[in-house]
């Protein structure tokens, strides 16, 4: 008897004057202890199917199925009370955003013990004790302290661990993980995935992993269900899906994992297009202490040097909070730098007035991560793309419209889109429009701030291809800010690794992937999810202390630099610099 | 990699305005308020066509203070004027003061709200203190003072109503601008070298349309009430121009004997203010972006 059995599930959402079919006739089953991956892009109905299984859909949804069984209970006809018992005991869910899954006004310990007491009759202290054990099971070291913490006091990764502990508290038979690592950094993602697999084995649970990331699938599951547009495209063991995909969509999905590009042909001798010298940013923090206010400084970026040669793509990688986005914004002069120089073609622009900046604004542009807020909802696409021409007073209105439409085509959208508004487009299409707006003035420098991290895999590959094509055509110099190392590996010429506001390593792309020297770079590379289930491996993770303890040490003779207690960047090969402590 | 059909025209999806209209339509009270308001506006515009007598003509002196009858639907007032005619013409004063004052509120409120929201810091501080100044002074008291000093009149009332009406519009616009200035399309415009004025004018104000509409509609009943109160106290629009406030004030003297003189203008004022408020509330709920019905 399978644990979960779904046959001919259909979900429809009623909307003003019509219905939208979210899931059309899907069937699958899951045995105890098995792990199943559901992969598909956003809107493919993967989350909706699992929400239907727990009857968590809003009242506007019509659910029909020939069979919808969870742990021998018919979900469609179960009473409300039975359903409540079923959730948690039979199946528990963990979500993408752990921050909104916890109630901000109660402590973690309170919330976990409440869940335990809702399902079993135990005393408060026994429940708290159990909560503490659960936190220890999910590898939270200071479990006793964490019990008394409020959600905002924990990082995203820690919260996701606490979320898993809460899901485990009812001893579910199935754990449904809905994009559990999408909001997390690569290093944290790898840790959470490893943890999910570990607790699955320990508790003997079945697992449903919902994700759009094939890497996550390759790492965690035995069997895969590929969904597209509310239907199951393909189902099979994970090895078969990766090695011998049958359906076109699956093939496309896999192809997007292995995109390769020609390296860009830069001119090594010419002066760099953009040079950041000793760029720093510190924020002033105000702290109240009694009647007095104290001022402290938080260094978001410390003394960063980055060189972007003409017609090259340089990646800036690092986890969130490493200062990579701030560096990009400072380079564009959208955030004022606290210190340092920004050289464009050898001229320092860091202290130019807005008026004097105008000619430089034409030469450098930026594409943002969130394509939803990057386009003005009140403007048509033509108006959005033509905006740079309006601001710089180029051409007549007719010429501007014509040029905008030409660019619309150039980024792969039909001319008929010109009169539409941004809300009518998908995420990938919006990002194309944002790229058209950034490039219509034909700038020399483009800062791409995680332009693909909010997109689905197949769309991501298309956008990257588009960026690369345009880069080669226009001879752009591009600063590519990203935490996605597989894209970085295929797209960029050299890589700058940032960690806690500093550059810790810098090298040509091939070299950094072949021979990483800094412990943080190694940790980052190690965390990249496998692109094939056969490459699955056990990982070891380093804490911040371990990383700083493992900082390379070099002698004065090796480097020719004066000894210093603080780590400094040392050149160890042409174009390869790494942060090391120089000792006598 | 294979070339994918990326430029499939997506199905034309419904815009936010369509959803706003759907939300508005499902709000019965607001639709009712809107219909009543539309009828009142039409009545005010076509007043000469639907009334039997000129509003200031004392044509029925012999029937002064007559009760409602088929000939005089709302009766005749103490000076022999057809009361129905006077009520209809009163709508002209009330509604025109309401709309003009609301328009001025918007004209003052938008730039101040946009400046406070966009620049923040000192500009915001100064504008917020001015707003506080206006919110601690009771409007009626200040209006009475100003009204007495300037001997009342139509323009004075519009001026006073706008003076106290812009605060709400300003706060609404400020909140919207503050929320939108952090959006990345504003950042993108800055990266293109756009000036602050350009960003405010091209991006932030168009995106504040819904709070502006709401602020405008909700400023109307406030101005109408202010006009009625001042006219009631005798420092508003001077007679013989028919206004509801004046009529209520006169009707009170006869209330115990000739009930119609107080009842009809009060009812007219109440219905108009209620209809406008319901319509405004409905608009606010329909245009509220947090309720996007998807």
How would you briefly describe this protein structure?
Chain A has 584 residues and is of the alpha/beta class. Chain A starts with a strand and ends with a strand.
Give short descriptive properties of this protein:
heterodimer; A: 584 residues; alpha/beta; Rossmann fold; 9-stranded mixed beta sheet; 6-stranded mixed beta sheet; B: 294 residues; mainly alpha; MetI-like fold; 12 helices; disordered N terminus; MetI-like (chain B)
Task: Please tell me about this protein's structure.
The complex is a heterodimer of chains A (584) and B (294). Chain A has 584 residues and is α/β, with parallel strands linked by helices. Chain A has a domain at 4-257: 3-Layer(aba) Sandwich (Rossmann fold), CATH 3.40.50. Chain A contains 22 helices and 24 strands. Chain B has 294 residues and is an all-alpha fold. Chain B has a single domain (39-60, 70-289), classed as MetI-like fold, CATH 1.10.3720.10. Chain B has 12 helices and no strands. Chain B starts with 15 loop residues before the first helix and ends in a 7-residue tail after the last helix. The longest helix of chain B is centred in the middle third of the chain and has 37 residues, at 83-119.
In total, how many beta strands of chain B?
0
CATH class category label of chain B: Mainly Alpha
Specify the number of helices of chain B: 12
Low-confidence stretches of chain B: 1-10
* Helix fraction bin of chain A: 25-40%
Domain ABC transporter (chain A): 4-254, 274-525
Main location (chain A): membrane
GO cellular component, one term (chain A): plasma membrane
Protein name (chain A): ABC transporter ATP-binding protein
């Amino acid at each position: 008897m399978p644990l979960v059995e779904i046959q001919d599930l259909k979900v429809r959402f009623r909307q003003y004057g019509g219905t939208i079919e979210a899931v059309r006739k899907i069937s699958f089953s899951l045995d105890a202890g098995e792990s199943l991956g559901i992969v598909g892009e956003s809107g493919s109905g993967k989350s909706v199917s699992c929400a239907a299984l727990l009857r968590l859909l809003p009242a506007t949804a019509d659910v029909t199925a020939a069979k919808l069984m969870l742990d021998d209970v018919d979900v469609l006809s179960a009473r409300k009370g039975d359903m409540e018992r079923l959730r948690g005991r039979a199946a528990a869910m963990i979500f993408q955003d752990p921050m909104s899954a916890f109630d901000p006004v109660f402590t973690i310990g309170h919330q976990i013990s409440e869940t335990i007491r809702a399902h079993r009759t135990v005393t408060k202290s026994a429940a708290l004790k159990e909560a503490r054990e659960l936190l220890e099971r999910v590898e939270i070291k200071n479990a006793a302290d964490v019990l008394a913490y409020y959600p905002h006091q924990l990082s995203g990764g820690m919260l996701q661990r606490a979320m898993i502990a809460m899901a485990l508290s009812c001893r579910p038979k199935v754990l449904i993980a809905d994009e559990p690592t999408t909001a997390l950094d690569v290093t944290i993602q790898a840790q959470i995935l490893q943890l999910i697999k570990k607790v699955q084995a320990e508790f003997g649970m079945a697992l449903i992993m919902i994700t759009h990331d094939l890497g996550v699938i390759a790492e965690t599951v035995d069997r895969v269900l590929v969904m597209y547009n509310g239907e199951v495209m393909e189902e099979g063991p994970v090895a078969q899906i990766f090695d011998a995909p049958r359906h076109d969509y699956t093939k496309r999905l896999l192809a997007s994992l292995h995109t390769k590009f020609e390296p860009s042909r830069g001119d090594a001798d010419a002066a760099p297009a953009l040079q950041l010298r000793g760029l720093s940013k510190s924020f002033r923090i105000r702290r109240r202490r009694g009647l007095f206010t104290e001022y402290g400084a938080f260094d978001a970026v410390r003394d960063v040097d980055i060189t972007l040669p003409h017609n090259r793509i340089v990646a800036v990688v690092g986890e969130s909070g490493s200062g990579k986005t701030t560096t990009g914004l400072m380079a564009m002069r959208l955030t004022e730098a606290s210190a340092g120089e920004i050289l464009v073609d050898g001229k320092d622009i860091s202290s130019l007035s807005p008026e004097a900046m105008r000619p430089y604004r034409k030469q450098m542009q930026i594409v943002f991560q969130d394509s939803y807020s990057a386009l003005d909802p009140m403007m048509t696409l033509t108006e959005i793309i033509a905006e740079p021409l309006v601001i710089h007073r180029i051409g007549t209105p007719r010429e501007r419209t014509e040029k905008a439409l030409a660019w619309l085509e150039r980024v792969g959208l039909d001319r008929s889109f010109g009169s539409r508004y941004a809300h009518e487009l998908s995420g990938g299409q919006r990002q194309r429009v944002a790229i058209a707006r950034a490039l219509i003035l034909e700038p020399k420098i483009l800062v791409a701030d995680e332009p693909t991290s909010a997109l689905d895999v197949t769309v991501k590959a298309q956008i990257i291809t588009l960026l690369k094509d345009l880069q080669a055509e226009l001879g752009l110099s591009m600063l590519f800010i990203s935490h996605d190392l597989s894209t970085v590996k295929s797209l960029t010429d050299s890589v700058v690794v940032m960690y806690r506001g500093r550059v810790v390593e810098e090298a040509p792309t091939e070299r950094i992937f072949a021979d990483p020297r800094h412990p943080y770079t190694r940790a980052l590379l190690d965390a990249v999810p496998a692109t094939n289930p056969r490459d699955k491996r056990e990982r070891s993770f380093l804490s911040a202390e371990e990383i700083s303890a493992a900082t390379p040490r070099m002698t004065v003779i090796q480097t020719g630099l004066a000894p210093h207690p603080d780590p400094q960047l040392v050149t160890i090969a042409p174009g390869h610099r790494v942060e090391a402590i120089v000792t006598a | 990699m294979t070339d994918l059909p990326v430029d499939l025209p997506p199905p034309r999806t419904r815009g936010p305005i369509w959803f706003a209209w759907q939300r508005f339509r499902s709000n019965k009270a607001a639709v009712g308020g809107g219909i009543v308001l539309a009828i009142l506006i039409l009545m005010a515009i076509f007043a000469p066509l639907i009334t039997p007598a000129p509003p200031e003509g004392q044509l029925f002196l012999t029937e002064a203070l007559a009760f409602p009858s088929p000939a005089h639907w709302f009766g005749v007032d103490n000076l022999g004027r057809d009361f129905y005619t006077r009520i209809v013409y009163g709508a002209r004063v009330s509604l025109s003061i309401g709309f003009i004052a609301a328009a001025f509120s918007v004209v003052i409120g938008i730039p101040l709200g946009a400046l406070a929201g966009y620049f923040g810091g000192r500009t915001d501080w100064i504008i917020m203190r001015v707003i506080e100044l206006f919110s601690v002074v009771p409007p009626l008291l200040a209006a009475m003072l100003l009204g007495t000093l300037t001997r009342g009149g139509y323009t004075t009332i519009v001026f006073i109503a706008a003076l106290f009406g812009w605060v709400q519009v300003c706060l609404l616009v400020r909140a919207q601008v503050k929320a939108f200035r952090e959006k990345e399309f504003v950042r993108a415009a800055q990266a293109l070298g756009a000036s602050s004025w350009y960003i405010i004018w091209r991006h932030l104000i168009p995106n504040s349309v819904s709070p502006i509409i709401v602020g405008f509609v909700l400023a109307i009943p406030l101005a109408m009430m202010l006009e009625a109160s001042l006219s009631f106290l005798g420092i508003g629009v001077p007679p013989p121009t028919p206004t509801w406030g004046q009529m209520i004030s006169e009707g009170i003297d006869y209330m115990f004997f000739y009930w119609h003189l107080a009842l009809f203008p009060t009812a007219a004022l109440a219905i108009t203010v209620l209809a406008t408020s319901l319509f405004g509330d409905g608009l606010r709920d329909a245009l509220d972006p947090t309720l996007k019905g998807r």
